[in-house]
Structure to design on (327 residues):
């Protein structure tokens, strides 16, 4: 009996030292992307249900044990605010269910444009969201192409900030475009454009724009020559589409052969689809960090699921992820 008990105890000790299993769950608006991530990761998507009350309130419930495990919760926090609230409630539920590690995987980090006070008496929304995630119980954050890099510093927990260039650059290279020029649609994105141009050994041009109100451009000028060039505009997100449409039209006027755009997050609000269709853009290349509202012949979607799955595997096995950064 004593020998059998000792063997059993040794097995329990060995199991305790094994790497804990990881499970992947999704908020309701990010299920498709989470399914693709789980498929690439090699595990089934975890089961979670949402109970809804008649007044619109909802409650998530994990339908399988997560005690002692690493939990990845996939959720892009684009509007409405219900997406963010779902994520916060799921993090809290995972904490109270004794998950060992809780990692929100946020392909699109909403409210990132509110990274500073740009006028008196306004909030710093991105900082508030960071505090909410940590207070809910997040132990690590994984996201992609933040609107402002300094948002990483708003967290006291580790942040894995991935770059979509890892998946965009191979696609750009497959186009085999001659006389390639990388362009930034505004001064703030020039760093991103220069990083792409360095990798692709291409020229760079920059658009200078002035706004008279949010999402409304007053003037736009082009810094650089695009005559006889195939231009690719690079940005982290596309919202109303006004900037990219205006930039593409301006570049064609200045002699560009073609204009494409790369945007990580396809918010595409208002009449953005119509603006893209009616613009001089040959193609708009985006990721699936936000699901498209409708299809368009001009929009090409490159999935970010393999990138997230691979990095999640590396995090689970405590491997270095520095090799995944091309920029």
């Amino acid at each position: 009996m004593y020998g059998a008990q000792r063997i059993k105890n040794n097995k329990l000790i060995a199991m305790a030292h094994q790497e804990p299993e990881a499970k992947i769950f999704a908020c309701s608006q990010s299920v498709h992307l989470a399914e693709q991530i789980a498929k690439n990761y090699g595990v089934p998507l975890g089961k979670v249900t949402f109970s809804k009350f008649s007044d619109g309130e909802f409650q998530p419930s994990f339908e399988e044990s997560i005690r002692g495990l690493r939990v990845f919760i996939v959720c892009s926090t684009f509007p409405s605010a219900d997406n963010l609230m779902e994520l916060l409630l799921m993090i809290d539920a995972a904490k109270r269910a004794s998950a060992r590690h809780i990692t929100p995987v946020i392909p699109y980090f909403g409210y990132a444009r509110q990274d500073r006070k740009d006028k008196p008496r306004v909030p710093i929304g991105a900082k508030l969201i960071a505090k909410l995630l940590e207070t809910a119980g997040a132990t690590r954050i994984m996201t992609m192409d933040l609107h402002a890099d300094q948002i990483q510093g708003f967290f006291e927990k580790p942040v894995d900030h991935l770059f979509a260039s890892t998946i965009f650059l191979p696609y750009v290279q497959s186009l085999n475009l001659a006389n390639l020029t990388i362009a930034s649609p505004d001064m703030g994105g020039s760093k991103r454009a220069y990083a792409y141009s360095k990798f692709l050994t291409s020229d760079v041009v920059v658009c200078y724009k002035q706004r008279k109100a949010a999402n409304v451009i007053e003037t736009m000028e082009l810094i650089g020559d695009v005559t006889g060039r195939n231009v690719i505009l690079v940005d982290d997100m596309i919202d109303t589409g006004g900037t990219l449409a205006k930039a593409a039209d301006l570049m064609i006027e200045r002699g560009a052969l073609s204009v494409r755009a790369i945007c990580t997050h396809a918010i595409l609000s208002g009449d953005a689809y119509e603006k893209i269709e009616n613009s001089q853009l040959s193609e708009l290349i985006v990721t699936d960090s936000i699901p498209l509202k409708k299809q368009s012949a001009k929009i090409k979607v490159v999935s970010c699921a393999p990138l997230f799955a691979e990095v999640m595997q590396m995090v689970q096995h405590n491997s270095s992820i520095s090799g995944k950064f091309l920029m």
